[in-house]
C-alpha cells in the first residue's frame, strides 16, 4: 500500500488511478513480447491472490479471475482508489460488457461497510425481505464479485466517518471478527 501511495497519490487531488495490463504483442522482428504493463507490486499481489483464493473460490470463478497461462492473452485492469474518511462510492450496478466479468476488491487502509441492494430491474416476489444487505469488509479483507453481484445488485459505500458493526451475537462491538 505504501508503494501505491508514493507512486500514484502524491498529489492530494488524485484519488483514483487506472492501470491497464498489456496483452502480448509482436515486435518489429516478429517475436512475441510479453509485458504486463503493471507495476511489480501489483504483479506480486495478483500472484499472491491467485494462490490465496485457489482453495476458497469455485474453480470456474478462479479460472475467470486467473486464467491459465495456456489461455489466450487478455488485458487486465487495476483500479486503485484512495478514499479519505467520509468519502464513499456511489451505489451503482456495473456496466455489462464494458469489462470482463469478475473483480477483486481489497480493503487495505481500513475497514468499511459495503451496501448491496437488489436493482429494481431484477426484483421479484421471491426477493421480499432480501432486497438489502450490508457487508463489513475489515481492513486487509478481499471481496470477489461476479455475475449477479455486479450486474443485478447495486453496490456502494456510504460516505460517513465511521461504521457501527454488530457482532454475530448481536451486540454492538464496532468490529467484525471472523471470516466473511
Automatic annotation (TrEMBL):
This protein's GO cellular component annotations are:
mitochondrial matrix
* SUPFAM superfamilies according to UniProt: Clavaminate synthase-like (SSF51197)
Report domain Alpha-ketoglutarate-dependent dioxygenase AlkB-like positions: 37-165
Give the UniProt record's GO annotations in the biological process aspect: DNA damage response; fatty acid metabolic process
A GO term for molecular function: 2-oxoglutarate-dependent dioxygenase activity
Protein name, please?
Alpha-ketoglutarate-dependent dioxygenase AlkB-like domain-containing protein
User: What is the native source organism of this protein?
Assistant: Serpula lacrymans var. lacrymans (strain S7.3)
Amino acid at each position: 500500500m505504501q508503494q501505491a501511495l508514493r507512486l500514484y497519490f502524491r498529489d492530494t487531488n488524485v484519488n483514483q488511478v487506472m492501470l491497464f495490463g498489456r496483452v502480448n504483442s509482436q515486435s518489429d522482428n516478429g517475436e512475441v513480447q510479453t509485458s504486463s504493463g503493471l507495476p511489480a507490486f501489483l504483479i506480486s499481489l495478483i500472484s499472491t491472490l491467485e494462490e490465496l483464493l485457489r482453495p476458497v473460490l469455485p474453480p470456474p470463478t478462479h479460472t475467470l479471475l486467473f486464467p491459465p497461462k495456456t489461455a489466450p492473452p487478455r488485458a487486465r485492469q487495476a483500479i486503485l482508489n484512495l478514499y479519505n474518511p467520509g468519502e464513499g462510492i456511489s451505489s451503482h450496478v456495473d456496466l455489462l460488457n464494458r469489462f470482463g466479468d469478475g473483480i477483486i476488491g481489497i480493503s487495505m487502509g481500513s475497514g468499511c461497510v459495503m451496501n448491496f441492494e437488489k436493482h429494481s430491474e431484477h426484483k421479484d416476489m421471491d426477493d421480499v425481505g432480501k432486497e438489502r444487505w450490508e457487508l463489513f469488509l475489515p481492513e486487509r479483507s478481499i471481496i470477489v464479485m461476479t455475475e449477479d453481484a455486479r450486474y443485478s445488485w447495486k453496490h456502494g459505500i456510504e460516505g460517513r466517518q465511521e461504521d457501527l458493526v454488530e457482532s454475530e451475537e448481536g451486540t454492538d462491538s464496532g468490529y467484525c471478527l471472523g471470516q466473511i
